[in-house]
Amino acid sequence: MRRSLLAAAVVALGLGGSVWPAQAFEFASQGQTLPIEVTADDGIEWRQDGQVFIARGNARAARGDVTISADTLTAHYRQTPDGESEIWRLDADGAVTIATATETATGSNATYNIDDAVLVLVGQPARLVTADEEVIAHESLEYWEAKRLAVARGKASLIAPDRRLDADVITADLAEETQAQRTGNAPQPGTGGLRLKVARGFGNVVVSSQRERASADRGSYDAETGIAELIGSVRLSRDDNHLAGGYATMNLNTGVSRLFPAPPGGQAAEGRVRGVFVPEARRELREPAEQSPQSSPAPTTSTR
Questions:
Q1: Which of 227, 219, 217, 228 is CA-nearest to residue 270?
Q2: Which residues are bridge partners to 70 per DSSP?
C-alpha cells in the first residue's frame, strides 16, 4: 500500500511527466509520458507547507530504463499559474546511484535542478561511467543536459582504454550514441548512450598512455581523432627520454608526438624546445635485475 500511495503522489505532483527520460541521463526532456514508480522501505513524508515530499529508506524512483536510488529522495514542488503542481528540484542523499542501460553515476549526494536541467553530484569521489569512459571528481561532478556537458572538479580524471586525462578541472563534451551506431545493427528503443567527443583539462594537466606521459598548464583530448593538445609548460616523457616546450600534440592512436616552442601563432615563453635522450644501451646498464645471471669468475692463467 505504501508503494502505490507514493507512486500516485509523485505522478500527481507532475514528476512523472517531465523529469525521468528513457535514456542517456536526459532528466528534463519534454514529451515523456512513461509512468514513474517510486518505492521506499521506511515510507514517505508529505510536507504541504514546505511543498516537499520525502521518501526514506532504500528509496528508488524508476521511469523507463532510468533509475535513481538513495537513502533519501526529496522532491520540491511549486504551484504553476494555472493551479497545477510541478517538481522543480530533486535531492538525493546517501549512497546515490543514477543508472540507465548504458551509464551509471554514483556519489554521496545529488541535486537535480529541473529548471536549468543541471545535475550536480558530490562524493569522495563522484563517478560517471559510460560504455567507454569513466569520469571521476573529488569535489563535484556536474551534468548540463541541454549542452550534454559534464564538468568534473577537484582532482578530476577521465579514463578511457589505454589513455587517461587528469586535471584540476575537466570538461567533457558528450554526444548521444545509439546502439545501432555502436554495433551497426538496427536501432532499438531505449538503447541510447553517451560517448565522449572532446575533453578539456585546466590546471595541472596530465595526459598519459601506455608508453607516454605529458604534463601542461591546460590541454584537450579529441576522442574521435585520438589527438591530445597541450599548452603551457609542457613536459613529455617516454621511457627515460624527456622533452620540454610550450606546446605539444600527441596522437595517442599512432604514438606520434610533436613538441614546439609555442602554439601556432603564439610567442614562445620558454625559449627553444629542449630534450634529453637516454640511449638504449645505457638504460640496459641501469637495469641490473634484467641482466643475465652472474657468471662464474673467469679462469686464471699461469705460466710455467
A1: 217
A2: 59
> Which cell numbers in the block locate residue 229?
593538445
Angle at 186 between CA 182 and CA 188, to 5 degrees: 85
Alpha helices for the chain (secondary structure H):
2-13, 15-18, 179-183, 280-285
pTM check: above 0.85:
no
Q: Is the dihedral of CA 291, 294, 295, 297 positive or negative?
A: positive
DSSP structure string for 226-284: TEEEEEEEEEEEETTEEEEEEEEEEETTTTEEEEESSSTT---SS-S-EEE---HHHHH
Phi, psi of 180 (to 5 degrees): -65, -40
Residues 141-189 have pLDDT tens digits of: 999 988 999 999 999 999 999 999 999 999 999 998 755 444 454 444 4
Contact 25, 105 (CB under 8 A): yes
Q: How far apart are CA 266 and CA 251, in angstroms?
A: 21
Q: Which domains does the chain have, with CATH numbers?
A: 1-115 (no CATH), 123-277 (2.60.450.10)
Identify the sign of the CA torsion 22, 24, 27, 29. negative
- Alpha carbon 69 to its chain centroid, in Å, reads 19
Task: Tell the residue number behind the cell numbers 509520458, with chain if given.
Answer: 33
Q: Which of 202, 178, 198 is nearest to 190 (CA)?
A: 178
